[in-house]
Amino acid sequence: MKRIFEIDPWTITSHELNAEDKRLQELITSLGNEHMGMRGMFEETYAGDTHLGVYIGGVWFPDKTRVGWWKNGYPLYFGKAINAVNFTKAKFTIDGQEVDLAKHAYQDFVVTLDMHDGVLYREFTVFGVHVTITRLISAATKELAAWRFAFEAVDGATHQVVVDASIDADVVNEDANYDEKFWQVLDKNADQSASWMSTQTVPNDFGVPQFTVVAEQTFAGDFTQTANTSTAFAVTNSFTATVSATPVVLEKRVIVTTSRDYADNVAVVAGAHTLSQQVTARSFADIFTAHAAEWHARWEKADVQIEGDVPAQQGIRFNLFHLFATYYGNDSRLNIGPKGFTGEKYGGATYWDTEAFAIPVYLGVTKPEVVKALLKYRYDQLTGAYHNAQQQDLAGALYPMVTFDGIESHNEWEITFEEIHRNATIAYAIYNYTNLTGDHTWERGEGAEVLIGIARFWADRVHYSKHQAAYMIHGVTGPNEYENNVNNNFYTNWMAKWVLSYATDVLPKIDDQIADKLAVTDEEVAHWQDIVAKMWLPEVDTTDVDGNPRHIFLAQDGWLDKDLVPVRDLPADELPINQHWSWDRVLRSPYIKQSDTLHAMYYFPDAFTEEQKRDNYLFYEPFTVHESSLSPSVHSIIAADLKMEDKAVEFYERTARLDLDNYNNDTNDGLHITSMTGAWLSIVQGFAGMRVRDEQLVLNPFLPKNWTSYQFRLIYRGRILEIKVTGAGSTVKLIDGEPLTILLNGTETEVE
């Protein structure tokens, strides 16, 4: 497997600039701070293949759905995060020659993402001048991005260097229909001290607000400003300096404000001016220190330290870095896009990934308020969930597959309208938060409104089969998206049954005011209980790929009728199948994109016997191609639960380095942000066996064979615990909070 970055515990570094790897390099070295983010593209001109991507959290556009086979219930638009004004742009000219590493000979190239400080560095030598660029997006001031450009002559000569720093609104999305543009310029100005531009999304026909984004750049350092220019879509400040053996520095600060935080467009511009004046008075060193301190505080809570396996160490830190760069709970209006600020695939919207994979991580490494913000995000969109269900002629609340505002904005029928299992995961998030924190206030309050709305949806979506005397759910897509429009997907049916059971249990505990608002009748509850008792969940006896008898849950009604050829018998040059086979062939195959039947066992490991988990794992995993980035971590956790330690480690390595090593040959579309949770989950829930059982924290750790030790901190019910696993055993230390009793390797242990 080709690696373009060097192995190091805290940095992502490359000393090579290969044109074919340029986009991958940009993705891996992306930066963000939840409010905004950008790919690691070059500031200066680069004539080769590149993707200039700057994205603003919560800023999006409703792109009209264009299909020739319209069906009732289709969303009117596809929501997408749009490439925002490019405030990174800087043209370098040395002795009259424009710097372009795609055209000119260069030496000493190095790019480094320092994950500990959250800073991107780049260096190269061209035309006798060594250039060093430092870039950060402040974790301390959300509107601030900052650069430091240093130029030093290394050939003994003196050079004239010109820097043209621009804010450019002439941008497009790579996935735009017919190269349409989404931005219009409202106002702009360039003068001797700064330049700024106010842009707004173009009007739309769907009632989605137009967003205004203002970017303002200011400067400091050794250069002399020589010009300022303004064109229809850009403002530019030009600087010049004479460069010799003593480094000459230009600092650039950019403030980005949006209409999400201000009452009107005038206020957005005024806000940018005010913040720019504040940061102009601060040195780059002060900006750097405040930013790095915030990252250090995050690592203090969340770092996982691995001894004996540097690639594994680098992998988990890389994943946590990009996860926190995308979301850290500072704005309850935001959520976690599957590609974060690194690419345009999936439109930058919210998927079920957040509740399934991200919330468990944030519960363990951040204060509970961060997860409360994610729960509130869904509560605030409950009206939209009711609308989505009504569009399908169904009762209750149907949370969207893809959304920015609660309204479904994805137009692929077999995913959007059949992959309804995501609705159960929204309810699971409420349960998961309550179970891990011990805090029932959300479950009994606003969360109950969400839970009952989802329960009412499932009660209407099932139908009763007189032939089988059972409730069924037809026409769905389970988590395995390589099967569409199937009947009785086990995971979907099991989770629908669980939601109705959970809602029934919670109902008597709901706050009186909310209970009156919901007005759940005895007849409703009786119907829910009948569905729970009679849900269609067939079990069958069969054999696995090696001929061993297995008692399994049937993935869907027709699954055993497929041509059951295991993945190991497929030609290597046909993998991944989604890049080599027709969609028709994929859908008829037995191949599983990600955990499906097994996903229920990931959510609720104590609801299944060890024999059930083992039989289903050994039967279904040989047919799983893991072509979803969400797949390896679930299989790692279940394998660890079954004491299949080698398998658990194998899948950990895959999830931890999925993007760094481009396992599925699809990282160029953008980093897999939500699946970056998988490395932490594999270690904490998998290797360490963390569970909450009967209100007690349970840990059953094992140490991977190639590791010397690992340790992590865990926030649990007001405590901060430090767990360390070595060859000699496991220790748990209380860093902060009240003493508690845990179950460690089956033994009651006091942690003080």
Give the topology:
Elements: E1 11-14, H1 22-28, E2 31-32, E3 36-38, E4 54-56, E5 60-64, E6 77-81, E7 90-94, E8 97-98, E9 107-114, E10 119-126, E11 129-137, E12 144-153, E13 159-168, E14 183-190, E15 194-201, E16 212-221, E17 224-230, E18 234-243, E19 248-258, H2 265-280, H3 284-302, E20 304-307, H4 310-326, H5 353-365, H6 368-379, H7 382-391, H8 413-416, H9 422-437, H10 441-444, H11 446-461, E21 463-465, E22 470-472, H12 490-506, H13 512-518, H14 522-534, E23 539-543, E24 549-553, H15 583-588, H16 597-603, H17 610-620, H18 631-641, H19 645-656, H20 677-687, E25 691-693, E26 696-699, E27 709-716, E28 719-726, E29 729-736, E30 740-744, E31 747-751
Parallel strand pairs: 26-30
Antiparallel strand pairs: 1-9, 2-3, 3-4, 5-6, 7-8, 7-13, 9-10, 10-11, 11-12, 12-19, 13-18, 14-15, 15-16, 16-19, 17-18, 20-27, 21-22, 23-24, 25-26, 27-28, 28-29, 30-31
Helix pairs in contact: 4-20, 5-6, 5-9, 5-20, 6-9, 6-11, 9-11, 9-12, 11-12, 12-14, 12-16, 16-18, 18-19, 18-20, 19-20
Q: Evaluate the radius of gyration.
A: 27 Å
Low-confidence stretches: none
- Report strand order across the widest sheet: 1-9-10-11-12-19-16-15-14
Shape: globular
How would you sum up the major sheet? 9 strands, antiparallel
Termini separation comes to 46 Å
- Total count of strands: 31
Strand content: 25-35%
Helical residues, percent: 25-40%
> Which structural class do you get from the secondary structure elements?
alpha+beta
Q: Overall pLDDT, averaged?
A: 95
Count up the helices: 20
